[in-house]
Write a structure and sequence with these properties.
With about 290 residues, the chain is mostly beta strands. About 5% of the residues lie in helices and about 70% in strands.
């Protein structure tokens, strides 16, 4: 049923759009053993959410009304600061630590255009702020010879420190912290070009925060008993290729993650099927280096 108790015969929802992330980083090699780095990142973009449904007209199960809802969603964030340390004083083993500060994310739905069988109307949108969690990372890498290396890292997303505000109403979403572990392998392909070509494969799991009742208010409009909130976990497969020259590094990488969820709320069954693909392109230039030094 909808929010007024009318039966829904059929509905579908689609989300399409683009979100762009912008990042800039600077690193300094303090010694042959220690490097430090700092960076800033933010994102912005627009996504259009379109939903269509046939709903009972005034509670009459024999009369259904077609309704289409178009919601443009404008997303942006404040700059997020990243600081890191890299220690390379243990022969073939390197250790690293990174901290990302929290960042406020803004969602503006703008005006929502509703088209039904009778008239088209516009409903004003809502402004939402979500304070994204700070992130704490520890990592290690092990080089086997000159061509092969393995890496792993631990990342803690402190979702419990997040806040949520819609208009002037602020609430604590009571989200659970989420920790993930990454594994990766890199092989340097030589002889093909003048410079080595790194080939990379990896895998990691990313548990999404359990948003408790806050999640149901946003997405399904109902509440579940506390023990029925399930923390979904995304599984990512990663691959990448790069090009290393005397003065620069170019990297191209991609992530692939399918997700299937089913849950019950207010007596109805819901399914969520997603396929997430991310593509990254980065460029690093080494100032003060020449001739491969």
């Amino acid at each position: 049923t909808d929010g007024y108790g009318n039966g829904i015969q059929w509905s579908q929802n689609s989300i399409m759009g683009s979100i762009f992330a912008y990042s800039g980083f600077v690193s300094y090699e303090a010694s042959s053993y220690l490097s430090v780095g700092v960076g800033v990142s933010r994102f912005s973009g627009v996504v259009n959410n379109t939903s269509e449904s046939y709903t009972e007209y005034n509670g009459d199960p024999d009369q259904y009304v077609y309704e289409k809802l178009d919601v443009p969603l404008y997303a942006s964030s404040e700059p997020q600061l990243t600081c890191g340390l890299l220690f390379k004083g243990l022969s073939a083993i390197s250790l690293g630590a990174v901290v990302k500060t929290s960042s406020e994310m803004y969602l503006d739905s703008g005006d929502q255009f509703i088209q039904d069988d009778k008239i088209g109307k516009v409903r004003s949108g809502a402004n939402v702020m979500i304070e994204m969690a700070p992130v704490y990372m520890l990592g290690a890498a092990w080089r086997v010879g000159d061509l092969l290396s393995f890496s792993c890292d631990y990342q803690l997303y402190a979702w419990g420190e997040s806040r949520y505000r819609e208009g002037v109403r602020e609430m604590d979403p009571e989200m659970d912290d989420a920790a993930e572990v990454h594994f990766g392998v890199e092989y340097l392909l030589t002889g093909l070009l003048e410079f080595p070509v790194p080939l990379r494969l990896g895998f990691y799991t990313h548990p999404l925060p359990a948003w408790n009742q806050f999640n149901q208010v946003l997405f399904s409009g109902g509440y579940l008993p506390e023990d029925e909130y399930v923390q979904a976990t995304r599984k990512f497969i990663t691959a990448g290729i790069g090009l290393i020259t005397r003065d620069s590094v170019v990297d191209l990488a991609a992530e692939y993650s399918p997700l299937e969820e089913t849950y019950s709320a207010s007596g109805a069954e819901y399914a969520n099927n997603e396929t997430l693909v991310k593509v990254y392109l980065s460029f690093i230039y080494k100032f003060g280096k020449s001739g491969g030094e």
